[in-house]
Amino acid sequence: ELGEHRHYMHKEIFEQPQAVIDTLEGRISQDHVLVSSFGHQAEEIFKQVNQIQIIACGTSYHSGLVAKYWFEDIIGLPCFVEVASEYRYRNPVVLNNTLFVTISQSGETADTLAALQQVKKIKQEKNIATLCICNVPESSLTRESDLIFLTHAGPEIGVASTKAFTTQLVALALLLTAVGRSKGLMTEKRENIIVKGLQKLPGLIQKALEHEDVIKEMAKCFADRDSALFLGRGTMYPIAMEGALKLKEISYIHAEAYPAGELKHGPLALIDEAIPVVTIAPNDDLLEKLKSNLQEVKARGGQMIVFEDEKSNVDSEGNMRVVKATSNVGRITAPITFNIPLQLLSYHVALIKGTDVDQPRNLAKSVTVE
Ligand code: F6R
Hints:
The protein is α/β, with parallel strands linked by helices. Helices cover 44% and strands 17% of the residues. It contains 14 helices and twelve strands. It has helices at 8-14, 16-24, 42-48, 58-74, 84-87, 110-120, 123-126, 140-143, 163-182, 188-209, 212-219, 236-251, 287-298, 333-353, and strands at residues 28-29, 32-33, 51-56, 79-83, 98-104, 129-134, 147-150, 227-232, 254-259, 276-281, 303-309, 320-326. The strands form three sheets. It has a five-stranded parallel β-sheet, sandwiched between helices. The protein has a five-stranded parallel β-sheet with strand order 9-8-10-11-12, sandwiched between helices. The chain has a two-stranded antiparallel sheet with strand order 1-2. A hairpin with a 2-residue loop joins strand 1 (28-29) and strand 2. Helix 2 runs antiparallel to helix 10, helix 4 (58-74) packs parallel to helix 9 and helix 9 (163-182) packs antiparallel against helix 10. The two termini are 32 Å apart. Fructose -6-phosphate binds next to helix 4 and helix 12.
């Protein structure tokens, strides 16, 4: 079943172009997102939505964080994101006309389910609709939601989530477009650009996967390290968080993600020759600011790995190693594509460390207890 792959995680990383194709299949028609992919009443529900509340755990939470940037930046709709284990145990203020979105690979995560059940108690009174983005049909979360969107990633066996995350982001981009159009917050032109970008994704991911050999080489600098820092700005901040989570869960190296602008508010004190710093540097509006953050790290001797695109032109001198990971800078496609080299990096660090990649210690694929 593993074919040419040593681990399920590796197989699943390489299945991502196909997983994206399968998730888009039947959801787009002639450059338009089919709003009905979210359910028959989706359009009517989306029209009434005034804000989005996303609830999830772990990797699924990170996909929600990326979506927050998209919703607020691209269609100006407020979007709140919180981990389920916090949300369910406080008394959150739920605004009228909220679209309550749970994101889950398994559909069985106990905290996410409890958060959904809690909000359902005030559903009528507050005109709340619930949507579940899930990889498993007939799961507890899908059974309890008004609207369902299935990510067609196929079974994910490796405990570390890879292709499920990528397809969650695709689902969220489709949701952005479907809500944007239903509410008149997105022009047809913008929708067409997003759809074209999504259709290019399988190819972009394929290209990013081709950097495996270079990344494998870079993984060596983590062999005798016990801590690493991941930096990004904008949507690359949640992607940095996901990169750090992947590294810690499969290689057991402590890793932390920071929005690069926060460096001088504390973490800069950590930087010395012993700490690898991984940065995602697309050629976007924040690049110049990010480059000055990189200089701050460089000046303190940090071992740096930078993933950039064809136009970023980060100087690769001294302790800074730069990989042109992609040609792409689209607001939707860039975070999805830049996540790929981070997955490969953690995988190869774990191989060097000799950990159990598919079954990391202390973790379970489906967290059905709180
Ligand atoms: C990390 C990972 C976990 C899950 C989390 C939520 O690689 O797999 O962090 O993302 O346990 O699980 P689901 O998505 O099934 O609700």
